[in-house]
Amino acid sequence: MVQAREGRDIQGIPWEEIEINRESYRQTRLEQYKNHGNAQSEEVPENECKTTEKGHSYYEFRTNSILESTIFHYQLRNLVWATSKHDVYLMSNYSVLHRSSLTHIKSEVLNLSGHVAPSEEHYGSNMEGFSQIRVSTLAVKDNLLVAGGFNGELICKHLNRPGISYCTRTTRDDNAVTNAVEIYTTRSGAVHFLASNNDCEVRDFDMENYHLSDHWHLSWPPNHTSLSPDGSTLIVVGDDPDGILMDFRTGMKIATLRGHLDHSFASAWHPNGVTFATGNQDKTCRIWDSRKLSKSVDTLKGEIGAVRSIKYTSDGRFMAMAESADFVRIFDVESGYEKEQQIDFFGEVSGISFSPDTEALFIGVWDRTYGGLIEFRRRREYSYLDAL
């Protein structure tokens, strides 16, 4: 934190020792970075995007942990999850790591480089297990960790129990990549998770009874889902410019979300359960009002690439928007998304996560030389809160 205040680079890049300065390299990067898109479309015009007031500071740099925060799939960037302001989980090659902000110690939670098999017996679980799983997506909430693989594998581990609880393969389809996993709790208190796969299916798994409880077939591969806070409505976005809003109880489509120009890989509900956001390879994040779905209410333009991840703080005050590389932007929701903090670094983003209490923001950066896990803390009037 002191180094950042003194003007030193948060990634430790020694600009004074290399031939190019930071500003020049940033400009070169903006000009040469290739954004990946699937649809042959032009970018959203600037006059259709919201003008924002930059330069605000809502979260303050705390530390950069030098470790490998890696990705296996260039489009899927949900590989960092915080369960508290001191505990964060992330992918590092074939390992799921835990890092403590209190002790600064990292430990391996799950190693998927060799043979992996469940240590508990549950009906429908693949007791033979799998070998060398390339993890495409990850989710961690409370004491449940779910890792999804390139071949439709799902590995479920309870963090408060030894071993692996459940293994399954969602599909034998040749294109079976697990694109996203979302853990949620039902009204009755049961823990479930949703898995979105490239075989055009969204599946609902019950982790109380360890079985597939429901599934829905789409006309295109789903890349991400978000369940509303009251559990009634599901956002589904994927390999189509249009997303859908679905009645989660009946599986019926409520509305089509039109406006994006390319495939979408991110979505998130605001805690109020009324507004939500979607992120697309057209370099935009769109804000929607569920009471008026004919068009989005705002369009936020990215700086360098596709919007790969969106997260709201649990109090609804801020929304973080991560691009594929170099930029994470934090918007002040109370200002109508008109004010923002821009976090600027160099490297591919592996994931972002606010802590449940909103006090911390973690950013995974994948870079061969300057990658790591960057931690920010929410700015407060009284600094003693950092010690709590």
Provide structural commentary.
- The protein is mainly beta and 388 residues long.
- The chain has two helices and 29 strands.
- The strands form seven sheets. A seven-stranded antiparallel sheet has the order 1-29-28-27-26-25-24, with no helix packed on it. A four-stranded antiparallel sheet has the order 2-3-4-5, with no helix packed on it. A four-stranded antiparallel sheet has the order 8-9-10-11, with no helix packed on it.
- The longest helix is centred in the N-terminal third of the chain and has 11 residues, at 22-32.
- The radius of gyration is 20 Å and the shape is globular.
- The two termini are 18 Å apart.
Oligomer: single chain
Mean pLDDT metric: 94
Q: What is the number of E strands? A: 29
Main sheet record: 7 strands, antiparallel
Per DSSP, the total helix count is 2
The percent range for helix content is under 10%
N- and C-termini, Cα separation: 18 Å
Percent of residues in beta strands?
Answer: over 45%
Question: Given the C-alpha coordinates, what overall shape results?
Answer: globular
Radius of gyration: 20 Å
Q: Which structural category fits the helices and strands?
A: mainly beta
Query: Which residues form runs of ≥5 with pLDDT under 50?
Result: 1-6
Order of strands, main sheet, comes to 1-29-28-27-26-25-24
In short:
By secondary structure, this protein is mainly β. It has helices at 2-5, 22-32; strands at 59-65, 80-84, 87-92, 95-100, 106-111, 115-116, 130-131, 135-141, 144-149, 153-158, 166-169, 178-185, 191-197, 201-206, 211-217, 222-227, 233-238, 240-247, 253-257, 264-269, 275-280, 284-289, 298-301, 307-312, 318-323, 325-332, 339-354, 360-366, 372-378. It is built from two helices and 29 strands.
